[in-house]
Structure formats: structure tokens, C-alpha cells
Amino acid sequence: MTEARGEVIVPEGDPNLLIRLGSGLRSVLRFIRGKPLGGIGLIIAVAFILIAIFANQIQRHDQDQIFDSPNPDYKANPTTLELARNPDIGSPVVVEQFAEPSGKHWFGTDKFGRDIWSQVIHGARLSLIVGLGASVIAVIGGLVIGMISAYYAGILDLLIQRIVDMLQAIPFLVLVLVFTQISEPKVSYVVLWLGIAGLAITTRLIRSAVFAVRESEFVLAARVVGASDLRIMVRHVLPNVVAVLIIAFSIGIGAYILAEAAISFLGAGPQGVASWGKMVQAGRGSLDLHPWQTVFAGGAIMMIVLGFNLLGDALRDVLDPRLRGA
Amino acid sequence: MQGYIIRRIIGAIFVVFLAGTFSFFAIRILPGDAASAALGLDAGSASAEQIAERRAEYGLDKPLATQYGNWLWDTIRLDLGNSFTNRANSVWYEIGRSLPYSIELGVLIVIVGFAVAFPVGLLSAIFQDRWIDYTLRSLAILALAAPVFWTAAIASLFVLEWELFLIDVIGQPHIWENPKDAITWYLIPMLAGGFAGTAATMRLLRSQMLEVMRQDYVRTARAKGLRESVVIIRHALRNALLPVLTVMGVTVATIIGSQVILENMFNIPGIGNLIISSLFERDNPVFQSVIVLIAVFVVFTNLVVDILYGIIDPRIRLS
Amino acid sequence: MSERSYWQRMSRKRMSRRGILSASARAGVGAAGLALVGCGDDDDDGQSVAQVQQQQQAMQQQAQDQAMQQQQQQAMQQDQHQQAQQQAMQQQAQEQSTQEQAEQQAAQQQAMVSEGKKYGGSIIEQSANVYETYDAQRTVASPVLQVLANVQSKLLRFENPNTGVLTGDLAEGWELPDATTIVLHLRGGVNWHDAGPGADHPSAAPGRALTPADIAWNIDRQRNKVLENGEEASNFGRSAYWGGVGSMDYDDVSLTLNLTEADATFVQGLANEFNLMNQPELVGGTEDQYTEVDASKVIGTGPYILTRWDPGEGISAVKNPNFYALPDKPYLDARVWVQTFQDPNAYRIAFEQKQVDFMSDPDPNTTLAIHDSLQDETYLTFQGVANTVAIFTPSNKAPWNDLRLTRAIDLAINRRQLIQQLHNGLGKVSGPVTWMQEAWAIPQEDLETFPGYRIDKEQDIEEARALWNAAGGPELGQIDWVTSELWASRSAWSATPGIVAEMFNQAFDTDQFNGITKPYLEIIPSWIAKDFDPFFSWIPNIEIPDARADMIGAFTTDAGSNYWEISDPYIDDTLNAAKQELDYETAYQMVREVQEYVMERGQFGRSICYNYIYPAIRYNYNHPQLSSPEEGWNFLPYSLNSVEQWVDLDDPSAEGRQPTAPVPL
Fold this sequence. Notes:
- The structure holds 3 protein chains of 3 kinds.
- By secondary structure, chain A is an all-alpha fold.
- Chain A has 15 helices and 2 strands.
- Chain A starts with a helix and ends in a 7-residue tail after the last helix.
- The termini of chain B are close together.
């Protein structure tokens, strides 16, 4: 069943790819001109990467800083009813909750009196680490497993394929939820688990590509000459699946970012860091009165996923010869 | 052909077995168990003996190998046991209650998805690289990028704010019982889920259409002087559809995934909700059975699609 | 703060927009409004919809004002009544022969409640997701009480759950001949339910009279922790309490409990919501299936008969036609609990569409916001939450067994800031005894002088930092501070782990503290093993207003909830003396002294922070028994409301209500 489906998305190898990619800025410009949507995606992605790197410079306030001011109405020992009429009365300082967007707080403040702008900025870090990290793990893992599976074929291949089938038979989100429950809710674990959950797709893609290359004449020739398995894989097979690797890497990023946001939304995401999914959930309760946290965090998720998806699509179009020139 | 089908069925059963084994060990590796979960918030006053007694009642004190053997044998006999959290209910009862809701919502999501994806994918392919193509593709890719929980939350805010219609989160009507209330209840989740699921199908359809329309037989049809609409619908679309249908298995899994969140948000007591609650409450029998059920569903959807595909397209059978 | 005015601004904007948009949708309501105003003449199409709506609102306002006045009058009566009760209660402990008083109470009560209350209708509320068992005696989880308090009865009830004023239930009156004896005068003519799924169960004995032997059976199984088949069961949640009963004597009309030692807190425990009476035949006959919850295994003597109990799907109970307090009680025809809302917004959707009659969101903002958008139809009440919020430092093991570190943590907790951040200021700081147990707690104005509670937080923090540095705090490396997952799963509180860590980081000028979450599944076993992580969350519910039981449980040597392994002869002696003290004033004083002693020692790592207050919202037609028109109860009021709650279906707010029908008898 894999072959039939593999054909749909797996491109043929392109030996000249590395050279073409190497021609630097000019090819980037050509890429943008040829694929304007991809260009927009590239710009968005780069913008978010810059934001994440320079988060501490852009943030304007410490993301954890709680803004408060002395309370002129403070009254010691208020009754329940006095508190009900003016909840602030019992506290000598008042936290600046739910401030509207202003010059001081561009995106306003959240329920805890923290600056939403800085939190959104720092949320980019988590999303990028999760998206890129999980994708790297999935591609490297998929490469190793896919190559072994395709190259040695036989019973090992069969077993790996059934495990991959199994991983694909369980909804991605459920898989990630189960995984993240196992370990402590740390960023590194969440990245790892997302990468592992994504192995199914990358393994399948890469295996099909290796299969195609394996039967090609130059691999046969190398085998006849007596080259070792490892040498054939690294010298002959690998360069011919680079296009697939890039596609596999770029198409997953958006999905991992969304998955992290979803598990954070459900309360099972990484702890102790700003997460957009968590922010959407936190602001949802009083969305009609204080929409800013949910709106900006959700908007950020959408933008970053959009950027990476556009970029990934365009890359696939460029790298997949069958669609090139269409 | 027969040999191929039998081989495929054996493979499918093995995959389901793997999924069940995975769920069995996964829920046992997770910290905590139903015994301590049941004691809940007030459990600060629960004693160690109380928890141990509970564990024994659930059979969680037996060695893992024994538990696994029992589970496997019971599952083969289709004896799924009783839920740990609602102990008066059998797992079959829980599934039987939840499944219709999930199927309803799932089907609605698929309908919305295809109803949007088909015309959009088609238009996008016909007007390739024109502004209409760019606009539609941008919209599709935007729909894919927006988290369903976000769009659903904002949509339900507007419905409530403007009192547009009733979202019956309590009556939980089935479509065949009370179509009007059921549809309004499902409306937001089905649109949110449908749009998010649309994008992938739409883009696949577009690329397939583009490929098919370059084929000789399409050119021949055009040369014969057939009308463009006939060419596109009768010749191109039919052939472009096949590959789209082959990814049904993956589509189904994706839809179940988004249902997990949407059912949670709209109080739909379906399979997605059952997965979450059984996972968080460590309700082992329910969790294991639901995972097996989903695996059966996805794997056999793939199987049927592939076999049908093999019958239609003889090239596959040879490989 | 500007918050209030923001709401007002917002609501004005919303009102007008809603008015326009919903004009057509509300055509039916508009017609009803016209009829009310009495201008059913031909003129009505000349009138704009807005005008009609204005009139309608004015009408509602008027009606509401009247209702308010009535309520206030009632409240005044109630206040006087409560004062009388309180005095009565204090005498009670020393004097005996309460029979007369009980009769008096009953008469007073009738006079009060029969005014203006209406019969009929039902109340729809959210149910809990998991019910551990249908046998309230074999659990420590309180959700089950929400259902059973309406179906079963206790020996005594709280008439005022806040102060602990008692009234009779299955026992009409009680005497304390001496400090170790309690004589209960049992009510006559009480019968077990004779209809419903429970009555149809083969093991049940429906319709028969309740006997003293039934009650003795209930007490015996709990104090001996033994099931019908002779096996011992460890899950009797209140076995420690009933274990205080050394022996029992009973005849046809009375039951005498002989305590093993003087215990002044015992009487109040009889009204603990958990101490419901089971029917021996049914519960004894189904003990092996005690976790398989369904309606057929529940029979009681209470005001409602359970007709459905399918956890996760629905629960319903209908009025017991033979309830012993008839014709007065209960007022409702039925109670229905719908399935749990996994998502807070689904709960809100249900409430706004009048599918449930009550709601409360963990985020007070949300509750207030809903009230804001439905001002004409709903009202708010505010009540304290008996799940105290606390920070636990594992002072029984290194490095936290250094008292300086424990004290530093206690000092650094910025209690008022937490209340602001997590509860919008709705809450009050609590000492070792919560402010809700008013008579027992250190008054708020005194509390302000104690370290950790001072208004001038800088002073606390300065001292905290000095202690922290002196005890080598900076060398401890990273410190993971655990918040319970259940707490952090509420969206309003999801940022808590970070906030708690940040609070300590700021106080000690460090970045050692790191906030994480763990599920109760992991936390509870670690408490039992007395090997737990630093912790922030709720601690178990306070069951009765008498604070002595909780203090003894937490601070005396080897006590059940003494997770810090505190062993201090002064505390042990004082609290044990307080337990036997029948004079309340003396007992208050003793408990207060222990609190001061404990607070000087950083609360031994059991740093109580605060009890928050949560707003609850109800439609105007929903009338539970409240402690004042705007205040609910701080402690569980289930059995009080089982007989006192009523609905006013003639109220304009009942228009468009969509109640779920109960399963009939």
C-alpha cells in the first residue's frame, strides 16, 4: 500500500541539486521571483527566526515582570461583600490586569499583569525550537531507518513498515499526548516526542526514495566494483535523496508547531516557557471582554505556520521535477 | 490478486496487534494509575492501603506479563471488560455510546472538507498561476495554518454574542433524532474541522489535476472537440481523484485527531473525548480498546482503498 | 482600578448591540413584555422595539427591586434568627434537654421559609465526571455528596454551614449528659423510599421504617472497618471519626454514643456531609459492587428519590412524596445533573442558553463577564472556597529541615499578590486556620502583624532574603516547585507554575526556582510516603467549621495529615486539651495560641496562603438558601439546599429556559 501512495509525493532524485543550491543569494532571489508565495513564506519564516533570536532585545519588558501600582483604596480586613463590590480593596498593590494595547504595552497585559507583547515574542522561541527541532529529529531518524529499511529490504523492512503503519494508524495528536504524558513536561522532551511521532511520515518518504535509487544503474555499478554498503549509502544514495530530505524537513515544521500548540491548549504542553497554545487557552475564558491575549497568540501561530507551509510548498514545487516547468 | 489480498489482511491484523500492544504498555508506563486517579482532588486523606486496595480491584497488582496475556486473550475474544472510572459500564457500552457522535461529526467534517476542496482544487488547477489560483491557494494554506481550537473559539464567541443559534451542548441530539439542534451543535466544529482538513485534499487534487491535464488522453479529448467542461469533469477529474482517495486512511486519522480537540470544546461525547478522559484518568481498558478501534478503522480503510485501487489499476497488482 | 469601569463601558456597548441584533429573535419575548406592560392596544407597531425593550427592562428592574427588598427583609429575619441560634448553640454544649429547643427551631424555621417560596419546577446543574462509589461512607471524594445529600439523610444537619449551627435530621434532638456521652433522640415515622430503581433492587427493603438498628449498623461498619462478609476494608473515609465511639446503646426512640475519650468536636461531625445513612440490606448486599455506580444501588430516606445515575451521561432525582418533613419540604419537583463539561466554554454556552441554572467558572473574570452580559436575568453570589490554597515545603528532609529555609519560604510568599493574580483580588489571606472558620482564625487585622502576612511586603522579603542567604539557599541549585496539574489545567490558572517560581526568584533575587506541574496521581503517593516535592495547590476540603479537627490532623505527632512529621510536645498538649474543651471561648484561645506558635516557625513548612472567594452566577428564578442575598456558603451546603432550594417559574428570567427533563419514577 505504501508504494501506491509514495508515488504521489515522492520526487525523483536530482543530482545537481547541491550545486544549484550553492549558487547563493541569486538563487534565493530567483526562487522568490519564481515562487512569490514561497518568497512570502521565506520572509515570514526569517522574520520569526530573527524575532526568536533577538527576543530579549525586542521584548521591551521582561516577559515575567508583573506590573502593579500602589492601591489608594486599600482597606484592611474587608468583608466578603466589600471584596465582591471591589475586588482590589483587599490588596495594598494592584496588578495591572487586562490593560488595553497602548504605547507602554503594545499588545496590552494579561490577567497576571504581564506584557503580552513580550510573551508573544518569547513564544516564537518555543514554536521555532519545537518546529525545527522535531523536524530535524524526524528527518535524521527517518533517514537512518528509511535507508536501513529500503537497503536491506526483506523481513527487517517488513517489520519496520508495519511499525510505521502502526504509528500512522494512531492519530498524530493522540500519539503526542500519550508520549508527553510519559516524561516530564520539558521542552526538550516535547521536541523529542514530536520528532518520534513524525518518524512515520519521514521514514516512508525516504524509504521510497532510497528504493528508487537502489535499483539505479550507478548503485549497481558501485556494488559490482565491490564498494561497502556504508560507502554506497553515503556516497551514492545519500546525495540522491537530498531533495527528499529537504522536502521532508520543510513540510513537517508547520504540523509540529500546530501539534505543540494543540497539546499546550489541552494543558499537556511544555511547562515554564511562554507557549502560544497555552496563551490561547488562558485568554479564552473572557474572550469577549479581553480578547487580546487569545487573538495575538492565535494570530502568531497562524502566521508562523503559514510562513513555513508556504515555504515548504514552494520548495517542494521547485525540487520535485515532475511539477517543475508545469 | 487473492494472494495479495490475503497478504495485506495479515499485515493489517499485525498492525492492529502492534497498536494494541503499544497502547497497553503506553498507559502503564505513564505515571500514576486509575487507583490514585479515582481518589481525585480530595485524596489528600486517602491512605496507602486505600490505594493498594483499589489497585488490586483493578488487577493492576499482577505482574505485567500476566496482565498483558490476559488483555491479549480477552481482546481476541472481544471481551473488553468494564471501564475503570465508570465501573458499572462495559467498555463496549462506552464505545457504543460514543461512536455514533464521532461518526456523525467525522462524516460532516468530510462532507464540508470535500465540498470545499473539490471546487477550489478544480478552479485552482484550471486557472493555474492566475490570480484566482493564488487567492484560493492562499486561503487554503491559511486554513491549514490556523489552529482549529482558535478558529472554533472565535466562531463560537460570535454565535453567542449575536445569539445566532442554539449550540445544544446538553441535549446532545443525534442527527436522526433532532436534525435541527444537532446540526447547529455540530456546525462550528464541522466547519472548523472541515476547513482545516480541506487544504491538504485541495492541494493534492490541484497537483493531480495539473498532471492529468498534461496527459495525452486529455489532449486527445480536447482535439476531438469535446467541450472543456466535459473534458475536465469526465476525463481529467476522474483520473485525478484516484490518488486523492488513496490518502483516505491518512485523512481519516487526521480528522480523528482534530476531533479530539473539537469534541472536547463542544462537549460532544464522542471517541475523541473518550480518548482524552481515559488517558487522563488512566482508564486502561477504555483507552486500550479505543486505540485498537481507531487502528482497525484506519488500517482497514487503507486496506479497502488499496484493494479497490489494485482492482481498478492493474499496474499496482504487479508490484 | 479601571477594571470596573471597563466592564461597565463594555456592557453598555454590548447591550445596545445585543438589543438591535436580537430584536427579531426576541419577538416572542417582546410580545410577552407588551402583555405585561398592559399596552396590548393597536398602538404597538408605532412603538419601536427599543422602547418595548426599555419598558421590559424597567419592569424587570422593578420586579427585581421588590424581590431585593423581600430578600433583605428575609435576611434581617435570618440574622436575628442566626444570633438566637448561635446563643442557643453555645448553651447547648453545656446544658442539655435540647428537645424543646429543637421544636422551637423547627417552628421558627417554618415561619421563615414558608414566606414567598413556591413549589414545583426543577434545578439543572452540572454533574461531576467521576463518582468513585455510591457509598458515601467508603470514599473521601466529595462529588458524590452533590447527589446523595438529596437522597439520603444524616443524624444532624447544619442549619448554618458557616458557623456550624446544628439542627435535627434523623435525630430530632440531642443531649450531652457528660463530655463522653451523646444521646440522640430519633425522629419517628421515617421510612425508606418505596419507589424508584433502588426500591426495585432485589437486595433492597423498600418502604420499611428506619430503625435505630439501621443507624447502629452504619456506625458499626465504619468504626470497625468491616464489611458484611467479614473482610476488613481500609476505605471507610471517616473510620477515624467513628472510631471515637467506644460503644452504643439504643432503644426504639433513642441512640446513645459512648465516646472513648472526651471530644468536643464530635457532635458537629454528625452533620458532616459525608455521614449519610445507608440502608443495611441494599448497601450491605451490594458491597462487592460498591464502585459500580448506578441508581439501582441507592435508596435513602431523604427528600428526593434517585431515578437515574449514569455517570458522564446524566443524573436525576424526583421529589419523595413521603418525605418526613412534608408538606413543607422539599420545594422542587426534581433535580437533574447533566453531564460534565470538559471545557469551561461549553459550560458557559450551556448557561447562556439557559440549559443549566447555575454556573461558576474557575476564572472570576468569566463569571463576572457573563453576569455583565445577562444583568437583567442573573445575579451573583460570592462564597469562600474551603479548599485552602497552601504552599508545602518538605521540612521533614534535607535541605528543607533547616528551619531558616522553611521560614524564608514562608516569609517570601506574597499572599496578597497571588490573590490578585490568580483570583482578581477575590480572596483573603489565611493563617493556619482559614479566615472562613471565623471564630477560630486569627482576625485579619492581627494577621497583618505576623511575618509573611505583613502589609509592608518589603520588610518580609528583606528578612526572607537574610534567612535564605544565611542558611545557604543560593547553593541549593535549581529548585523545582510543583503545582498540581489539576490546578494548572484550569486555563485561568495555567500560568501558576511560572508565577510561583517568579515570586520566589524575585524575593531571593535569584533564578533558582523553576515551576513545574505534576498530577495528583504522583503527588498523593509522595505525601503518603512523606517524601514530597515543594508544592503549591489546594489542600483537602475542610469538612466542618470546627477548626480543631484539622489542626490536630496536621500538627500533632503521627497524625493523619502530618506530612512534615512535626512532633512538638507543646502543640500536642495544647491541641489535645482543646479537643476536650467544651467551652468554646477557651477552645478558641487555645487554638489561637497554637497558631501563633506555629506561625513564628514558618508554619513548619505547611504554609497556608489564602482562601479565595468565587463568584457564582444564577438565573433570577433560581433560589437556593443563601447566607445573605449576595453571599453563599463557605462550606458544603448540599443537605441544606436539598430541602430549602426552590425555583420561581413565574420570574421573567425563566422565559426561554430549556430544562432537561428528569427520569420519572
